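Deviations from the work plan: none for this task. Representative record:
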Amino acid sequence: MPTTYHRIVGGSVHRLAAISDGIFAVAMTLLVLDLHVPVLEMLHAQHPLWAPDAIGGEGQLWHALARLVPRLAVFLLGFLTLGMFWLGQQAQLDHLSRGDRHLTWIHLAFLCVVSLMPFSTALLAQYETYRVALLVYWLHLLALGLLLLAALRYAERAGLIRPDAPAGLAAAARRRIVVAQTLYAGAVALGLVSTYLSVALIILLQLNSAIAPNIRPLNRF
Amino acid sequence: MPTTYHRIVGGSVHRLAAISDGIFAVAMTLLVLDLHVPVLEMLHAQHPLWAPDAIGGEGQLWHALARLVPRLAVFLLGFLTLGMFWLGQQAQLDHLSRGDRHLTWIHLAFLCVVSLMPFSTALLAQYETYRVALLVYWLHLLALGLLLLAALRYAERAGLIRPDAPAGLAAAARRRIVVAQTLYAGAVALGLVSTYLSVALIILLQLNSAIAPNIRPLNRF
Amino acid sequence: MPTTYHRIVGGSVHRLAAISDGIFAVAMTLLVLDLHVPVLEMLHAQHPLWAPDAIGGEGQLWHALARLVPRLAVFLLGFLTLGMFWLGQQAQLDHLSRGDRHLTWIHLAFLCVVSLMPFSTALLAQYETYRVALLVYWLHLLALGLLLLAALRYAERAGLIRPDAPAGLAAAARRRIVVAQTLYAGAVALGLVSTYLSVALIILLQLNSAIAPNIRPLNRF
Amino acid sequence: MPTTYHRIVGGSVHRLAAISDGIFAVAMTLLVLDLHVPVLEMLHAQHPLWAPDAIGGEGQLWHALARLVPRLAVFLLGFLTLGMFWLGQQAQLDHLSRGDRHLTWIHLAFLCVVSLMPFSTALLAQYETYRVALLVYWLHLLALGLLLLAALRYAERAGLIRPDAPAGLAAAARRRIVVAQTLYAGAVALGLVSTYLSVALIILLQLNSAIAPNIRPLNRF
């Protein structure tokens, strides 16, 4: 009876956490592959800084680096997004007493979307003025939120949550996801006017949620 | 006597699990490197969406992304395959009391095949209409199945399975591998007619086994 | 109340350590991607070494490899730097009784800078004679030091340090960071004369701190 | 006193094992990046296999894959080498009661050489007929062996080995490294005649040590 097999797999929350950490770590580090070292047409020989023209030669590289700043901002966005969802997933896994195969596959689907993140981030970095790229990025955020929500709901219904988990844990996590997703949707809607506005707003929202300043109402999101 | 060395290595199931998680995580994330952000010939400046031509400019990127869909399907296939074998390996490792050097090398051979998966997946994505690519992918699946089977058999014979492991564990895992491999072989045989059919069938088989719907007889595979 | 969510996330020092190990491991290994196998214009067929011209043919590859030595030195620098900060972070995490969301975000910011290291290292390898590249690398070092300092200060104030941590732990770690950063700043200042001098000095400082020879005053840094 | 800092870092064998597993996992998986999917000049449309010319079209890809076999062999060599040294390092770490900063830096140097392995492996794959490439690979093997030996010796002298470690552990590990390195040196010496011979011999030696057949005298290495 194959159902026996289904009962013996996926029981280890520890290993689910381990592969999650691995995939998040690789995805976070691959984001940076999109930042290419600029290629200058000609390299200059080195002079002491007080020699004439020494500073002029540096200027070329300086300008090339300055042109990378928008990409760096998108990299930062990608890292913040992954960090946020890593924390969200961890908050769930930390409070499970055990896993099962359904829960494991929901989390694997979540990790599959996570591993696509370097692609969406690179797309947004390349096509910052395109609404299509912003839309793809937002669908990404939405999918991550919905899958975390599904994992939470399944864990609740299957009785996988630790008995000593703080009361209201699931409700707080759920509210958190819904509020964040609503704000993202609003930020993306502003992309009808300008995609730069949307990206800036999403970064601000995520920075706010990362820093969680002690100012009302900012600390409620 | 070198055999002393042989006796002191490979005893840690914990570290075997750790390197397995690492290799699976990297292999799963490298799959996405095959999805390249499309290059458009000319970038357009941004206009508010109500400006004339604003939507026309987006269409170009939209079409470029649509052309990536078959590759995305192959990426999904690769991720599902790796997820499935990760679970299968985990089901074994979770129930071992200890390892030894032979078991470790069987699992390292398994991980070696796992680390080749991004290659086979990229090959299939590039040559979707070629039976040779499908054959390589299938040999890959077969090798993974056979190595898991070998690891299981060795663990049984060497008495490495935990005494408190559920009865019938090994038999269930074995049956599972044999059934899955038979179905894969059947799906690949249909590649004589069309490779698309084969790939679609393998994806469906794996999705079925991931979702394990509560419908007979689908939940038996 | 979203603050409930804020209270339930980031409590696991174990998972923070796991994702840190993952990001450091990937960043350390990606450094090597910058070392490209040289491309020779024509490959020679193989002759036994005593055949005429056999050694001449090898010479070409030998010279191509010799030209990689400066890049190898920069790779070594990058690896040493990451190793040093990995140890520094570990020294902190090992002595925490628990984490919280603020601490986790400080460490995620630290890891974000870590994951940018392959970029800065490649930049320095490509533009060894440019002060701008050296400056970027130094800002990197500075950011890593400041973030570790911030994490330490926060952990102290939030009472996250284990009660059984050795007395003077925080003070020693703090002094260590300040001394190292001062020395780095001095080494970089010498870059006004020559960037090679700066890089050589930084490597020596880090080697000294890695080897920690039993010679006064070298073992004090 | 900075020596306080030196005393508080590097104590965690667990985290040293974790970053080792991470670096080995990434290095093992990066080896495969050297296997490029072949590019055919023209793709063919798909016909059922019984249509005329269907098989001819496949032949092209088949030949392109066959040309990858030598690279696959070098990939296998790289994976075997890394697997062997991973096991060797694990055998040491498993029997340590604790670490210290010197031990950690010896292992970090070891990991640094490990992370260079994809480079040496790619070099050997590209320049199979060049003795220089073989020499670089061998220096790599030698460095790994010597660093493991240094780590072992240091652990013994600093009293870091667990009291319950099997007697003769260190002697067996040391003998193992010396025997293996002697055999490698012999195999490489044969490269004076033909590098293919050397590579084949090293693969055979490593396969023998991985499989450890129950045949005298093969099971003594």
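Residues 11-220 of chain C form one domain.
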